[in-house]
Every structure is written in structure tokens, then in C-alpha cells.
Amino acid sequence: MKKLTITRPDDWHLHVRSGAILKTVIPYTARQFARAIIMPNLKPAVTTVAHALAYREEILQAVPETVCFNPLMTLYLTASTTIAEIKKAAASEHVHAFKLYPAGATTNSDSGVADIKSVYPLFAALEKYDMPLLIHGEVTDANCDIFDRERVFIDTILTDIVSAFPELRMVVEHVTTTEAVQFVQSAGSKIAATITPQHLMYNRNVILAGGIRPHYYCLPIIKREHHRLALIAAAISGNAKFFLGTDSAPHLSSLKETACGCAGCFSAHAALELYAEIFEQANALDKLEAFASFYGPDFYRLPRNSGAVTLEKITWKVPAVYGENGIAITPLKAGEKLSWKIQ
Q: What's the fold here for domain 11-307?
């Protein structure tokens, strides 16, 4: 196959930061995706509708004028979130979900929830107003092995949430394990999951074998090979519970390449091309359109996009860095070749 045309896709998990980094990265998402769920973990966190709408305007100002792109905003759920704010968010056409970060789980998660059961009344309000809950599913117990944090979260926290709130729509973000795949598969229709390109492409050797490679470090951390294979099987299965969410998370290269580098992989530069390569290697290019363009909007109860994008089978080299004027962001697969390119 030399060309592949699919309905214009959406990214259901995206970090774009703010300021100069936002201006650098958002054009890459907007050229290929019609919409994206925007993560709220800025500093300060996006916890109110008013802040979300202001952030949305900042994003739109950074989108090239020739491109049509709709940022779908989320609010950061904290112990201080009010039911009144949840009701206001549900009434907004631009706010589409709340994000749950366990305190300390990942970048800018210090405002997250330390005691999950303490916010059960907020989950009840989300259920009442039909607002999806997006979950970073990891425990933050220092005694828990970092490679087990997702599994333990499912066993000790997520199972209870699903049982207590059966009508609450939830997305288990960036699933990374066989256990997470099995949980989503066996749960009811209210439970879905996003899968990132890095967790489909790599196992944990890529971070550590032959030297420490900080640009592959993300949270949840990349796992063993049998987990990667389970994710691929889920992505190409045709199961509508699994859909595209890059979790593209740009950081300055200097902040990744340091003694205590931050978590996140920047993949927005070639997100759809990466997924195309993954699906082709799995002999499942015919399943890419539904994964990228159909299942996400169906779960969020939004219309599917009407436009299309075309990928061409062309070999090209990923730049070593993206950005200028003091902004340098190292992308996923920096300096390597890809075999698909958006026309």
C-alpha cells in the first residue's frame, strides 16, 4: 500500500503546555487531528471553567490560521473541586471531562488527590451530570515498585470506583499492562482506554539497555515485552473500548537530559505516522481508522469528523530537535527514519 486515507482523527490525550512551548508544538497536532483532549496539569492547574476557557483561547491563538482545530478542555480534579464547578463544567460546550491525578503520580501532579475515597462525592456528581472521568491509573506508594503501580491501582482503587459508580464514564489513560487491558475488556460499556505510540512501540529495554535514554522515560513507565504485545492486540482488535491518545508531553531537552529528568515523550510531531507504522507492522492498517477516528468520538458522544487525511508511504528522517529561539524539544524517534508521512 502506497497511500492510506482515513477520516480525520482526534487525539484523546494531549499535553501542549503554555507560552513558547505551546506555540512550538500545537501546529503539529493541529495539522493532523481535528480535536484533542487537552490535559489540565499546568502550573497553576486548570481547575475552573473560567481558567479552561482562557487556556482554550491561548491554544487557539497558537493554531495556524489555515487550520481548523478544536481543543477539548478538561478540568483538574482536586480535593477542593466543588459540585457547583462540576455542574458549570457540564453546562459548558468546551469542557468535556475531569482529570484525576493521584498526588505525585506524574508531571505537575502535586495538586492531585491523596485520598481517592475522599472525593467519592465528586465522582457521584460527575456521574449525575454525565461528565467523564479521565484517570491516571497509578498508585504513588513509595513502597510499590514503579513497574507495578498501574496493576496495584487497578486492584486496590479502580475496581472499587467502577463498582461504586457504575454509570460514571471513565477513561483509563495510557494503559501499559496486560492487567489494564484485561480490566477494560471485562468492564462495562462505560469504561474505555487510550493507548500511546511509545507503549505500543517499545518495551522497557529502550530506556535502560546500552545506557540511560531519558527521552523514552514517561509515566506510566514503559513495561515488559509481554505487556507491549497485549497493548498491540488491544489496539488492533476492533474493540471500541480502545482508542488513540498520544499523551504527547513536550519538555525542553535540557530538562529531560539532567540528573533528575522529567517524565514525558513528545510524539505530536509525527503521531499519526507513528501509529500507521505500528499498525502496518501488525498487519492491521485496515483497523487504524476506527482506532484513530471513530471509537474516541463515539465514547465522548461527539460526532465523527467529516474531513480526511492521507498518509503516503515515504521514508523521511525525524529531526533531532524541534523549536527555535531557545526552545529545543527532542521528539520520539529523533534522528530515526519513519516510513509514513502525512500528505
A: TIM Barrel (3.20.20)
